[in-house]
Amino acid sequence: MSKTDRFETLEISGEPVVELDYQQMSLSVAYGLSGHTLPDGDLYALDKLQSVWDDTVRKRVKQYTNAMIHRSSPMKRRPTEIEPLMVPEGSSEREVTAMTVREMILNKHKPIEAWFETGRGMELMFHESGILMGVLEALMSEDIVGLPIHDALLVPVSEG
Fold first, then answer.
1. How many C-beta atoms lie closer than 10 Å to residue 157's C-beta?
2. Fewer CB under 10 Å: which end of the chain, C or N?
3. For the packed helices 25-34 and 121-141, what is the interaxial angle rounded to 10 degrees?
């Protein structure tokens, strides 16, 4: 079901729903488990790409970041399932190499570098699911219905 359809058709106890989204969850959990404070702002934002930052660039950086979290060896080229990260240079666009994006991500997240390219992605997903289960249990104890969707919950609008 598309996000639009969810909000147009789903109801809980006769009420429209609102989404409680745990954004940037993997990186947030990695920082927490490592005992480091989260950097301010968007965890996917890379300083060297700020002049071209938009939703498409952010999506690609997020994909690279998650690929690096799940890999068990250093990334040497762009994973085929990730579209090229293109940035304009003058009037033409060029692809930012995987190695460049990799270095930018590792530089931004130096405190949690041990979580990248070490095959620990499933460990983070396990912790994320535990957090989501804890929230669902807390909602249930308050007689609030919550519908989990990946790293978010849908709840009645009056409870959001």
1. 13
2. N
3. 100
Task: Report the 3 state secondary structure along 126-154.
Answer: HHHHHHHHHHHHHHHHCCCCCEEECCEEE
Provide the whole-model pTM: 0.84
- Residues 45 and 52: their CA atoms lie apart, in Å, by 11
**Exposed, middle or buried by CB within 10 Å (0-12, 13-18, 19+), for 118?**
middle
Roughly what angle, to the nearest 10 degrees, separates helices 55-70 and 121-141?
A: 110
Per the document, the length of the chain is 160
Mean residue pLDDT of the chain comes to 91
The amino acid at 112: I
Residue 109: closest CA among 24, 52, 51, 21: 24
Q: 88 or 117: which carries more pLDDT confidence?
A: 117
